[in-house]
Amino acid sequence: MTETKMHRLLKRQINKNNLSAADVEKFSNFLNAVNNSYFSSQEDLLRLENIIEVSSAELYAANQKLKEENYLKSIEAIQVKNRLDNVVNNLSDIIFEVDHLGNFVYLNSSWIKYGEELPEESLGKNFMDYAHGILNFDAKLLNEILDREFKKDIFKTVFSRKFKNKIKWWEMSVKVIRNNEGAVKGAIGSLNDVTYLKEVERDLIEANKSKSRFLSTMSHEIRTPLNAVIALSNILLRQNPMPYQIENLETLSFSSKNLLVLINDILDYNKLIAGKLTIESKEFSLEHVINSIAKSHKILAQERANKINVIIDADIPTEVIGDSSRLTQVITNLVNNAIKFTYEGEINIKVELVKNDLTHSTIKFSVIDTGIGIEQDKFELIFERFAQAEDDTTKKYGGTGLGLAICKKIANILGGDIKVESTIGQGTTFSFIIDFKNSEKTDQNISKEKKDETQTLAGMKLLVVDDNKINLMVVTQFFDEWGINYKEATSGFEAIEFTKEEDFDLVLMDLQMPEMDGYTASKNIRSLGGKYKTLPIVALSASISNDVRNKAKNAGMDGYLSKPFNPGDLFNEIKSHQKKNQ
Ligand code: ADP
Description:
This protein is 50% helix and 20% strand. It is an alpha/beta fold. The N and C termini lie far apart (160 Å).
């Protein structure tokens, strides 16, 4: 083994162990192997060092890249956050976040609008600290509401709050945040100042109310003189007018009745919109109602060369319980239209039993005509107020387009829905289905009632009270015709005086009178006691409002008729008290 080829570490070991040259020679094979392994391990080491160096350079480069990326990402995150903050803080809505205890953990800068506090002043405080000033605030109720609402994920509420003497309306929307187990972690939400909208809404409601008030007053004011026009034209027609006067009187009567229908429609529509239309529940005969409608439209139908027929299913119950006046109003309207839009044709009023059981009967009413028909694409439009199928309808046939809108609303209130089927040039069918309660009246009762209709009023003695001379004249003309004895009173005071002086079978009392109105006069008569407690007093008023009707009832009056009255209704009303009295 040559010394130059010997690894320095082996050399150090040989020297350290004092090996002689002979020993070295002796173990030369072994020492050569050791020497080779020293050299190869040194080479390995060098290779390893090289690998480590390369790797750490790569690692360094990767690290640098990562750092750069993170840096860019954090810049991006900051930019996004700034942008979001910018948006959130420039929203006019207040944005908030509360933890599960209701403490604020986030508030945007619009928060200042709520209570003039900066977000940082309110963070950490509880939302309940800001409930003061909320109108009608009830902490218990609020907790109950929150308990209930927090079961949902999103809820909305509107509340008003008085702050520094100013009332503001706030709309709050809340989204509940839950953890993975579903427990409430907190909530985020918004508060929006809706004071302006609320004020607009209030003004609109107020404007609508004044519109209704105006219409009611105007209609009422028009109804009163119209009452006289209708009644007097009827009376003139009954008093054998000269032939040349008949046509004019009929036109006068027809036009004034049409005007009354229009005014009543407007009043009705207003009531329907205000949800004030009350529905009666009384026993009545369907057959009687339908036949009366057909009878009262016979002449009108004939004038347009139309035939009017009634087709009633044989198994229709004799009596049902419902609102006969409203039913009459809907069918009358449909029949009037059918006559109006049909010439030389037929109008059939059909009543069919859809189903019935012990307590209820479901009835289908149809008004079928053979008239001009309606285009299919107008089926919806015609039910809108002031809408007509054609632009020239008013010019050709008259009308205002209110009728069907009212019919539809009334039918809805009665529990039905009006359907239309039509073919141009062939005719139209309007139909609706209504469910009535069955009446418990027996046929015997009914025939007895019918027999009563044959009675007369002759010989009765009535006191008629009205401050309006024309009204007195109108009513008493009918009294003369029916053989009724009567005395006239022109004020509430006179009414009391005359009832004390003479015996009457009935008092017909106007309601609106100066000095003493009909309510007060009636109360005074009742307070006389004895026979005055049961003396029939019937109100006669130009108002068709239910409030007036109820007020009359509360004043102790027994009946109510609205002006202009249908002579038949007046007759029946008086007759019903004559029966009780005798
Ligand atoms: P009006 O009859 O006062 O115009 P309605 O609301 O009662 O108002 O009817 C609205 C429109 O529907 C009518 O103008 C007419 O165009 C159409 N219409 C209603 N009934 C009939 C019918 N039986 N035949 C043809 N068209 C009809």
